[in-house]
Amino acid sequence: MMGYPPIIVAERFTRLPTEYHYTGEPNAWVRMTRPGQRLHSFLEGPCFDKSGALWVTDVPYGRVFRIGPTGRWELALAYDGEPHSIKLDKNGGFLIADYRKGLLRFDANAKTTSLIADGINSERFRGLSDLAVAPDGDLWITDSGRTSLSDPTGRVLRYRADGTLDLILANVPYPNGIAVSPNGSFVYVAATRANAVWRFLANAPDPVFPMVGTYIQLSGGLGPDGLAVADDGCLAVAHAQAGRAYVFDELGDPIAQVRVPEGLWVTSLAFGGVNQNLLYIVEAQTGSIYQADLSELRGSK
Length: 301
Hints:
- The longest helix is centred in the first third of the chain and has 6 residues.
- It contains two helices and 27 strands.
- A hairpin with a 5-residue loop joins strand 5 and strand 6.
- It is mainly beta.
């Protein structure tokens, strides 16, 4: 990554209330991903709904929370899954990328989920990480499992609006966050274990796999986790286990480094639903949501 962008220190918007802290014994997910530790939560995958509420998932304990504009938390769903990401579809409904169950539809009123897909080509998903909704309504999905540089077989999938599920990439060392440019032309994928963000054309002319390039190369931390694209094309990247996020312009040049004042596990982020100059950052170590005002860097939108 070229250059050293201005540093912005985010402010805490809200923190998971202690009444929602898990106090039981570590489950299988915690024992695998954070051996020897006890976690009260592990927050991921934020999105804003049309009312301005922020939704986040709690991976190990199968929970989805709704956070109101004032920072008040509400438990919206508790089930036997591992939800990594929640997003709004084109019709205003919710979709969940669940590591254990697959791609789900979530009915927030009934507090129920239903299965859309749990595999492709007669093979079950390895473990979904994230999803993004393109302007045309297609879903872009990352299927990471436990892949890494020693097993670079993580997959990127496309679930088309007509119900077709396509395999797009099958060579990613832990595909994690995914985002689509505002015009739908480009797809960005966080290749976490390569510490890089890849980019390719959403509608590439290649007959099998699209040509892919390294768009951003990071260093330090674990690697990029969640991604978010603003309406002007700026790309925000959560840098896992480094206590920071980066913001890049449309050319891939860094324009800001956003640091959180407490905690290192920056997992995911989202630009404000109403105010795109506000970047909301999820920090899982403390169970906090931070916000950073980028208006001076991005200009008045």
